[in-house]
Amino acid sequence: MREDNVIEVRNVQKKFGQKKVVQDISFNVKKGEIFGLLGPNGAGKTTLLKMMTTLLRPDEGQITLNGFNTLSQSRQARQQFSVTNQTAAIDQDLSARDNLRLFGRLNGLSSQASRIRADELLTAFDLTQLANQALATFSGGMRRRLDLAVSLVGRPKILFLDEPTTGLDPRTRIQMWQAIQALVAQGSTVFLTTQYLEEADQFADHIALIDHGQLIASGTPNELKQKLGGLQLSLTVTELAQLSQAHAIVQDVLKQPISVSEQTLVSPLGGDALPAIIVILNQLQIAKITVSHLKLETPSLDDVFLKMTVGKN
């Protein structure tokens, strides 16, 4: 194991019955990174995460956390991380402050240290005014903030986050990410799954994209976007009735896959982008198809996701 690798996943496989859910996946996560695991529903993300957190045994391959093998050294491996799942692990009968103090004691903190840590986290997650209220009064966003706060009590070396901001309002999502970034700034490593590709694009240092249990691509967000190559054309047709005809024109000129969202066509451009755009605009004019919006843009992580996963069987 390299010293800068906090997590190493080597040729990991998992089957349920005859179905291969995770197929020969390998990647590394370096210290102090935010590493994003992306993939469509059923891609194998949750199964892989459960194996990394010792809840499932891989059929083949190995996983190490800070050098500890999750199978042969499971107790030491579990001491390296904390997990925040999609469902909160907090005690519904206790207040936010009491939950944090309880988990502080469970993490080996003294009574005084657990009180100090609880107050720090209540402040960081804007929960101070609600600290002594019953959790029955908490909204879903408040519970998610408390759940993440609980997972940070022991300042874990590795934090696994399973879709940490799903269902949260924008303000709460910003608070969550501020807390995650503060943890990374202190030297921790974060491994997360998320449905929000713009979050992965903005915050993740590296990304692994999986589909049907296989690793499709990995790299920095920019490296993944560069794999699609060059610029792409985004064109919005004014009249919905003209969309299919516009689609046929763009398809005929570019001979590239085209995605459609409402009245907007998006397609990658080849090397001779300007001549192709001129031809498209001329043909649209001849066909009397009006365009309300046209722009050239670099591919987004959403484009990478759709291009590399949709329709692969």
Concise synopsis of the structure shown:
With 313 residues, the protein is an alpha/beta fold. The chain has helices spanning 45-52, 74-78, 96-106, 111-124, 140-151, 170-185, 197-203, 221-226, 243-254, 273-286, 301-309; strands at 5-16, 19-30, 34-38, 60-65, 68-69, 81-84, 158-162, 189-193, 206-211, 214-219, 232-237, 259-261, 264-268, 291-297.
Description:
One of its GO terms (cellular component) is plasma membrane. GO terms for molecular function: ATP binding; ATP hydrolysis activity. There is one protein chain. This protein is an alpha/beta fold and 313 residues long. It contains 11 helices and 14 strands. The chain has 2 domains: 218 residues, Rossmann fold (3-Layer(aba) Sandwich), CATH 3.40.50; 67 residues, Alpha-Beta Plaits. Helix content is 36%, strand content 27%. The strands form 3 sheets. It has a 6-stranded mixed β-sheet with strand order 6-7-8-3-9-10, with helices on both faces. The protein has a 4-stranded antiparallel β-sheet with strand order 2-1-4-5. Strands 12-13-11-14 form a 4-stranded antiparallel β-sheet, covered by helices on one side. Strand 7, helix 6 and strand 8 form a beta-alpha-beta unit. The longest helix has 16 residues. The radius of gyration is 24 Å and the shape is globular. The mean pLDDT is 87.
Unreliable runs: none
For the record, the CATH architecture of the largest domain stands as: 3-Layer(aba) Sandwich
Structural class given helices, strands, pairing?
alpha/beta
CATH topology of the largest domain: Rossmann fold
What is the straight-line distance between the termini? Answer: 34 Å
pLDDT averaged over residues: 87
Given this structure, which CATH class of the largest domain is correct? Alpha Beta
| Proportion of beta-strand residues | 25-35%
Total beta-strand segments: 14
The general outline is globular
